[in-house]
Every structure is written in C-alpha cells, then in structure tokens.
What we know:
It is built from eleven helices and ten strands. It is of the alpha/beta class. The strands form two sheets. An eight-stranded mixed beta sheet has the order 1-4-5-6-7-8-9-10.
Amino acid sequence: MYNPDKYHLEMGPIRPPNEGGAGSLLIRATRNCPWNRCTFCPFYREKKFQIRDVDDIKRDIDIVRKIVDMLEDGSDMSKVPYQSLYIVKGWYRGGQKTAFLQDSNSLIMPTNQLIEVLEYLVETFPSLERITSYARSDTIARKSIQELKRIREAGLTRLHVGLESGDEEVLKLVKKGVTPEQHVEGGKKAKEAGFELSEYIMPGLGGKELSKQHASNTAKVLNQIDPDYIRMRPLTIHPMTELYHLKESGRFKMTSPHERLEEIKLVVELLDVSSILCFDHFLNGWRGRDGQLLFDTSFTGYKLPDEQEYVLRLIEEGLKVPESKHFDPRMSRMISL
Ligand code: SF4
C-alpha cells in the first residue's frame, strides 16, 4: 500500500552555502542547536535540541539509497515528495561526492553514535569524497584527540566552525558561550586530528565600540589556528534576536560599510596564516569604482599569504567608493551562518 511518508527525508533549516544548491546530500543527524543563546542568531529560537536516533538517521540514508535506485532504473517518481527528490536528484546528478550532516553542531553526538552514522553513510555511498558538519569550538575542545581521529577516520572530513570573533568582550557580548582560548584549542585539535577546518568570522559583530579589538583579536586567534578556510559573514541583525533589541535601544551601534572594510583591512593586515580567505556570501556586497562586486564571492577565495596584498588593494579600492554604493547590512534582515 502507498505510504506517503515512505520517502520522506527529514531536513534541517540551514547548511553552509558551499554545501547548498543540492550539491551536497543533507543528512539530519541532530535537530536544532544545543547552545541556542547567541544574541545575533534567529535560527532555532524556542526549538529544543535533540540528537536523532541512529536508526532514524540510517532510515533516512536508506531512503536516499532507494530514491537513487529509482532514478537509476527510471522508476515512476511521482510518489517521492518534492523536497526529498530535489535534494537527492541534484546530488545524484552532481556525482554523489559530498554530504553535510545537519544541524548546528552534530559533532556533539556521542562519538560511537556519530561513527556508526558515518560508517553507514560511507558504506551505503562509497562515492562520497567529503562529509562535513558544523561544530562548536568548545565541543571539539571537549573531545579527545583519539575520539576526533576516530571520527575523522570514519569519514567526516571537514568541520565548519562559527568563530565569529576572537575577542573575549565581543564573544561575551553576543553570548557565544566560547572563549578565545576554547576557539584556539578547538581549532588546533581539529587540525591535529586531520580535519579540514573552515572558520567563519563576522565583520561588524563588535559594533562601532569594539570594532578594532574585534578585528585584532580575531586575527590573533586565527593566526594560532591557521585554518584551511576563513569565511567572511558580515553581521546583519534579524528582528527575532536579542541583538535587535540592543540595537533598537541604542546600546549596540552597527558599523557602516566603510567601517567594516576598515575592520576587515585590519584583520587581513594582521593575518599570518596559510588559509584560503573567502567572501562567499552575498552579504559581502561591497563594490569597486566600476560598480562590480569588490571581492570574488565564489568558493575559490584568495590564497594567503600569496594574495594578501591583492586583497588589501581591493579593500583600498572599496574605501574610495561612496558608502551609499555598497550593500549596507544595516538595511538588511537577512542572515547566514
Ligand atoms: S550561532 Fe550557532 S551556536 Fe549560536 S545559537 Fe546559532 S546555531 Fe547555535
């Protein structure tokens, strides 16, 4: 008998942009965020964190397998819900190479359970070359190197970490729940265990008041970690957040497009890393004098230190353009992690 839920895949609300566009298979390993207190984040408000049952996650992997088999033998797909088909079809056509474990910190799963999921995923889809997940620095720091290495060996290849800032005051202000030292410890351990590491930083997060220390201490933390990727995610403030109320009451003053460029300039000047610096999000909408986007917003980014001077020249160019010509996150309610 037709069961409408038979092909239903559970999906979380977010994933990094480079895992999107159906390029990566999305497998929901946990639901929501175990921390859920960052004052700038609207994603999981009121939602309870849960670790999904390993059998339920495996059931989703089996459903993906069934849909792939149906695609291969040309079966009638009318009974497959649109969302499941969209995710699997795009990934299938893209060569089935990458997967992303949702939601916001799936590394928090008990190590053996996470390994069981990873092994099942790799066994079911041997074509997978990259499996990634979001992870909080304090979660990475709490796992032992041996545990992290086992997780890496089971198939998890890349961790996406929301560093946001390396400044203690800024981290406290936004209730990140992580200290600069934990960021460094988590980042270094991830690298030591063999993960590719993507660190997200948030220009503007210190507001006007803490802008300089936000920039210099963020560079300091990044220099100690030397991640594979540094990704810029400028701050926007969503009305459903605590930071919005601080802004409305005048206690948090957002930086302007030029002030943010100055902030990024200071970060880039101070960086001493061998990372790829990416502006891979539309919120990095600064313009050059020719009206074109200032930075390359593709996933290719800029290789540091080779292209450090070039990025600094781009920033100088952006500073010559009137602020009104740049995308201004003060006017936007969009947000991305
Ligand atoms: S920013 Fe990340 S850690 Fe903070 S509440 Fe949002 S999802 Fe959770």
